[in-house]
Amino acid sequence: MDPKTRTIHTAIPGSEYDITVRPGLLAEVGDMVRKLSPSKKAAIITDDVVGAIHGSAVESSLRAAGFAVAVATVPSGEKNKTLATISTIYDTLLTWGIERTTPVLALGGGVVGDMAGFSAATVLRGVPFVQIPTTLLAMVDASVGGKTGVDHAVGKNLIGAFHQPIAVLIDPAALKTLPPRELRSGLAECIKHDIIRDADGFADLEREIHRALSLDIDYLASLVAHNVAIKARVVAADPFEKGERAHLNFGHTFGHAIETVSNYSYTHGQCVALGMVAACHAAKALGMIDQPSCDRVAALTRAAELPTGGLTLPIDTVVSAMIYDKKVKAGKVRFVLPTTIGHVTVRDDVPAGVVRDAVSSLTSQTPAP
Ligand SMILES: NC(=O)c1ccc[n+]([C@@H]2O[C@H](COP(=O)([O-])OP(=O)(O)OC[C@H]3O[C@@H](n4cnc5c(N)ncnc54)[C@H](O)[C@@H]3O)[C@@H](O)[C@H]2O)c1
Ligand SMILES: [Zn+2]
Question: Which domains, and CATH codes, for the chain?
Answer without folding.
Answer: 6-177 (3.40.50.1970), 180-361 (1.20.1090.10)
